[in-house]
Amino acid sequence: MNEIGALLLIIALSVVGLWIIFYFVPVGLWFQALVSGVRISLLQLIFMRWRKVPPRVIVQAMIEGTKAGLTLNRNEMEAHFLAGGRVSKVVHALVSAQKANIPLDFKMATAIDLAGRDVFEAVQMSVNPKVINTPPVTAVAKDGIQLITKARVTVRANIKQLVGGAGEETVLARVGEGIVTAIGSSLSHKEVLENPDKISKTVLDKGLDAGTAFEILSIDIADIDIGRNIGAVLQMDQANADKNIAQAKAEERRAMAVALEQEMKAKAQEARAKVIEAEAEIPKAIAEAFRSGNLGVMDYYRLKNIEADTNMRDNIAKSGNEPKKK
After folding, report:
1. Euclidean distance between CA atoms 45 and 48, whole angstroms
2. Number of structural domains, the chain?
3. 163, 70: one domain
4. Which domain holds residue 139?
5. pLDDT, tens digit, for every residue of 60-70?
6. How far apart are CA 123 and CA 159, in angstroms?
7. Digit-coded pLDDT (tens) for 239-248
8. Beta-carbon neighbour count of residue 188 at 10 Å?
9. For the whole model, what pTM was predicted?
């Protein structure tokens, strides 16, 4: 029993040892590289394991590049992987660029990859341009009619501008700005509807792809819809505003007139009070005239007769002015 247990232990240790050896010494991968024309030693593959670089990724990429006629450096590929890059994507892009006669070297490809862009997709976009549909762009012509425009922008990746170049959102924003400018400078919305290619020409002449990662090939107007009459709406709003201002000014003048009327009434009341106050002094003056001898009894009677005659005339005048009742 002890011999059987020892034998099983030896077998188990042998299996584990062989697994460790084949894990750190990828003989199969080395042989695959050898028959594919890639010169790499077993020791280099072992060192890759220790450097936390998967040998299969590097070897497969080198095989692909070698078969495509590319000259790749193993150390540069390992450095790119350790920097967080995608080695397989870079090699795919280099092979595609070579087949399409697009100038792209390993340094540029790795820089694009580390910048967060898909370098393989960029190469594909250089070969097969991409069509971007703009969201509805609203603009107003000089005659006040609103136009809602949709456009299709055909772009091609600009390999040299992929690092540091603006993205798709910037292109859409610039195209929208150009559409608004082109429509806004048109005298009539009918002019835009008759010649929609005028918008495309105006926008393309602005060089909107400057500083972006794309090259604009064409801008095609897909649809133009007529919106509201913004000019009429603005005129109505202005008319309402003018009316409100006029009403406010009229109300201000009315309030000033009412205030002036109240002020005049107050002044009239004040004058009437002064008259009453002056009339109250008349008996005192007459009494003083009697005491001083300046007014006699006959003079007083004549004054009273004149006063009575005046009152009678006033009453007759008032009764003559009243309308007769039928």
Report:
1. 5
2. 3
3. no
4. 130-232
5. 888 888 888 88
6. 8
7. 888 888 989 9
8. 13
9. 0.56
